[in-house]
Amino acid sequence: MIKNITLLTAAHEHKPIIENLMQFYMYDFSNYVDLDVEADGLFKAYKDLALYWNDKNRFPYIIQTQNTYAGFALVRWIETPQQSHYSIAEFFVMNKYRRAGIGKTIANQLFNLHKGNWEVFQKETNKPAQLFWHSVIDTYTKGNFTERLKDGKRIQAFKT
């Protein structure tokens, strides 16, 4: 078990760190969606990342452990005429720190920070993410959530 896990609200100076970590995230994610590197050998920059420091409905976080970066999380507040809810836009824990409880710990902290309705989704092709989120949400809510398939996504809905 990894100790000293910290979830930090990402300050503007953390933006380049998230941009760099995003390369590893996209590399991992390319197993589940069609992503390729550009001519410079890097994945295309994450669209709208800058909005996480300018939009009151977006929340960027850095995950640290032992005073080093272990990942990041991007949370959004989504408002539609039908409903409003929080959503995990992106969630990344570096391979080195997976299966050590960091993801579960950070997810629980995010759910506790942002009280209200939540919808967390995973691509239908990303079975490891589906297993992770189903387990984390089932434990967190004590089974009090719904799950559905829509537009190639598995979605868990619950309230904190």
Compact description:
By secondary structure, this protein is an alpha+beta fold. The chain has three helices and seven strands.
Quick tags:
four-stranded antiparallel beta sheet; three-stranded antiparallel beta sheet; alpha+beta; 160 residues
Write up this protein:
It is a single chain. By secondary structure, the protein is an alpha+beta fold. The chain has helices spanning 15-29, 102-113, 127-141; strands at 5-9, 58-65, 68-79, 84-93, 117-123, 146-150, 153-159. The protein has a 4-stranded antiparallel beta sheet, sandwiched between helices. A hairpin with a 2-residue loop joins strand 2 (58-65) and strand 3. The protein is globular, with a radius of gyration of 15 Å. The model has no long low-confidence stretch (mean pLDDT 94).
Q: What structural category arises from helix and sheet content?
A: alpha+beta
Low-pLDDT parts are: none
Radius of gyration: 15 Å
Treating each run of at least 4 consecutive H or I residues as one helix, how many helices?
3
Could you report the average pLDDT, rounded to the nearest whole number? 94
Distance between the termini: 26 Å
Beta percentage is: 25-35%
DSSP, total strands: 7
Please specify the SSE layout and strand pairing.
Elements (H helix, E strand, L loop, with lengths): L4 E5 L5 H15 L28 E8 L2 E12 L4 E10 L8 H12 L3 E7 L3 H15 L4 E5 L2 E7 L1
Antiparallel strand pairs: 1-2, 2-3, 3-4, 5-7, 6-7
